[in-house]
């Protein structure tokens, strides 16, 4: 079996759809610094170049006015037990263009693996970019993910990011996302992560609603058990009229897990409004006992509640 | 033959407050037994104690289900034996759909989950399955809708003993009629129902009734008589004057 087949198999094992043979679906497949597959469609340019050992530079361009019909699939990963993958990603969504990217990051055998993503994302006037990232790290806890994004959303533009890591071990995650939003622009950053054993989750998200009527939502749902730890810093600032945003962080902890939520809300215009909610605690006892009164044992009931929270 | 539920001399104290003081009653299969009383008299506490909810463990007295003492059984064990509770304030679940919630009771009994069963249960509680099965059981549903969905989950479980804690609170007239229909449905299906309420209107659906005051059953018997007594002496509370709290007939 060649590298491409192994990568696609790992992707499918992690729940990915078999779309790589479909000529109407754009895709990019990277295993460490190896570019295993790449396909673009009309209106979309995808370029990938190895620029140094373990590092690939990726450029995605959606041309003005194009609405890409099918989600673009990206498959990144490291197949051996040890390795490093660094991706320098540059995304440009031009005026009134629209694209959805589904990225699956697979590290099924990782014992000592580093995955570093350094992204610059520019969304022009009226552009729309949806980025869904699904991670599968295997059961060893040997993955370290370091992701950094600088995001710029111009007037009437929209960015949605959805990150989930719900099966297997997390290992270490360290996110640092910063977004600037112009007038009537929107940003939504959602994260759903389930941590266990000695997993460590650190998320720093900052969205600055600089333009009039800009909108922002930062929403993190984290479930932790064993000795897992999470620190979530959500910062939302609003300094223009009618700018509105909401920060929501919910963390459920069990066993000896530790969770911290640090919401920062900064409003500098009398007609702007930002709200926040943060809740950290164990599984709600009324929810738990209602399910137990339906015949579920405590562990089963707890799983239903936590999975529900993470699927929300 | 053993009664479906038998409660003997039940006492419960939480911290230093004695909430249940020697509660005694019994309930047969296919019977509706109503417990009525003003807010704060211990009715919901009794419901939680019977279900085995954490922190509601009686210090004295016995609870028997079909002749078996259940004092030491956990919630799940009681549920698996056929006891369940419909809460006064049904819980909300982020990210759990009505479909998933309804399926839980079936799965725990090892029964097959089919669309037909789920739709049928929702139709019985006057909820349109096509509009609701994929909705989340969260704050987007009203309290009345959640109550009806909870009743639908009980239909699927067909438990032998159903504790309905204030099923009429916070619901509109339409939902109230539906709840009355459900009480009859459960009764005709052979389930025993412990109906907990503070509204004498609900007593017309009961076969037996008891009046609870400050953690004690002070009167027990025909629902019409209990209703009359409740209306005459409990609204407003007339304990200082005519009330016969010492006499349980």
UniProtKB/TrEMBL annotation, chain A:
GO biological process, one term: iron-sulfur cluster assembly
SUPFAM superfamilies: Stabilizer of iron transporter SufD
Domain SUF system FeS cluster assembly SufBD core, chain residue ranges per copy: 90-308
Alphabetical list of InterPro entries matching this protein: Fe-S_cluster_assembly_SufBD (IPR055346), SUF_FeS_clus_asmbl_SufBD_core (IPR000825), SUF_FeS_clus_asmbl_SufBD_sf (IPR037284)
Domain of life, source organism: Bacteria
Designated name of the protein: SUF system FeS cluster assembly SufBD core domain-containing protein
Automatic annotation (TrEMBL), chain B:
Domain ABC transporter: 5-239
ATP-binding in keyword set: yes
Keyword annotations from UniProtKB, A to Z: ATP-binding, Nucleotide-binding
A GO term, aspect molecular function: ATP hydrolysis activity
SUPFAM superfamilies per record: P-loop containing nucleoside triphosphate hydrolases
Keyword Nucleotide-binding assigned: yes
InterPro entries named among the record's database cross-references: AAA+_ATPase, ABC_transporter-like_ATP-bd, ABC_transporter-like_CS, FeS-cluster_ATPase_SufC, P-loop_NTPase
Record Pfam families: ABC_tran (PF00005)
Protein family according to the UniProt entry: Belongs to the ABC transporter superfamily. Ycf16 family.
Protein name: Iron-regulated ABC transporter ATPase subunit SufC
Organism the protein comes from: Halanaerobium congolense
């Amino acid at each position: 079996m060649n590298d491409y087949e192994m990568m696609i198999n790992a992707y499918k094992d992690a729940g990915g759809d078999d779309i790589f043979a479909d000529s109407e679906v754009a895709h990019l497949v990277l295993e460490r610094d190896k570019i295993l597959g790449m396909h673009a469609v009309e209106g979309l340019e995808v370029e990938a170049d190895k620029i140094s050992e373990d590092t690939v530079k990726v450029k995605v361009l959606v041309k003005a006015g194009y609405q890409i019909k099918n989600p673009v699939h990206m498959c990144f990963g490291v197949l051996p037990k040890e390795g490093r993958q660094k991706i320098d990603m540059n995304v440009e969504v031009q005026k009134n263009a629209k694209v959805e990217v589904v990225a699956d990051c697979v590290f099924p055998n990782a014992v000592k693996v580093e995955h570093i993503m350094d992204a610059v994302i520019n969304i022009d006037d009226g552009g729309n970019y949806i980025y869904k990232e699904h991670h599968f790290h295997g059961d060893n806890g040997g993955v370290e993910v370091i992701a950094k994004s600088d995001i710029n959303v111009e007037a009437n533009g929209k960015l949605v990011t959805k990150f989930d890591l719900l099966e297997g071990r997390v290992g270490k995650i360290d996110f640092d996302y910063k977004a600037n939003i112009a007038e009537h622009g929107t940003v939504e950053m959602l994260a759903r992560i389930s941590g266990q054993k000695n997993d460590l989750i650190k998320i720093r998200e900052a969205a600055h609603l600089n333009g009039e009527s800009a909108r922002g939502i930062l929403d993190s749902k984290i479930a932790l058990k064993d000795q897992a730890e999470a620190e979530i810093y959500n910062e939302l600032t609003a300094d223009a009229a009618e700018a509105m945003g909401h920060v929501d962080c919910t963390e459920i902890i069990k066993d000896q897990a530790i969770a911290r939520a640090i919401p920062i809300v900064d409003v500098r215009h009398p007609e702007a409004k930002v709200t926040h909610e943060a809740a950290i605690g164990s599984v709600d006892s009324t929810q738990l006992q209602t399910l137990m009164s339906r015949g579920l044992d405590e562990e089963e009931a707890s799983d239903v509640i936590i999975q529900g929270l993470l699927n929300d | 033959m053993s009664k479906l539920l038998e409660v003997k001399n039940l006492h419960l104290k939480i911290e230093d407050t004695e909430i249940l003081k020697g509660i005694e009653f019994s309930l047969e299969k296919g019977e509706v037994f109503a417990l009525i009383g003003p807010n704060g008299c211990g009715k919901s506490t009794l419901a939680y104690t019977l279900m085995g909810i954490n922190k509601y463990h009686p210090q004295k007295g016995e609870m028997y289900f079909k002749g078996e003492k259940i004092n030491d059984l956990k919630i799940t064990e009681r549920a698996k034996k056929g006891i369940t509770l419909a809460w006064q304030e049904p819980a909300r679940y982020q990210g759990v759909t009505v479909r998933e919630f309804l399926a839980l009771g079936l799965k725990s009994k090892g029964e097959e989950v089919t669309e037909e069963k789920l739709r049928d249960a929702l139709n019985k509680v006057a909820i349109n399955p096509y509009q609701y099965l994929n909705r989340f059981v969260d704050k987007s549903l009203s309290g009345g809708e959640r109550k009806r969905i909870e009743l639908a989950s009980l239909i699927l479980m067909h438990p032998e003993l159903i504790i309905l804690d204030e099923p009429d609170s916070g619901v509109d007239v339409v939902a109230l009629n539906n709840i009355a229909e459900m009480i009859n449905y459960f009764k005709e299906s052979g389930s025993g129902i412990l109906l907990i309420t503070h509204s004498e209107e609900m007593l017309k659906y009961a076969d037996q009734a008891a009046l609870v005051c400050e953690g004690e059953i002070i009167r027990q018997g025909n629902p019409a008589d209990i209703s009359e007594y409740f209306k005459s002496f409990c609204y407003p509370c007339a304990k200082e004057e005519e009330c016969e709290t010492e006499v349980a007939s």
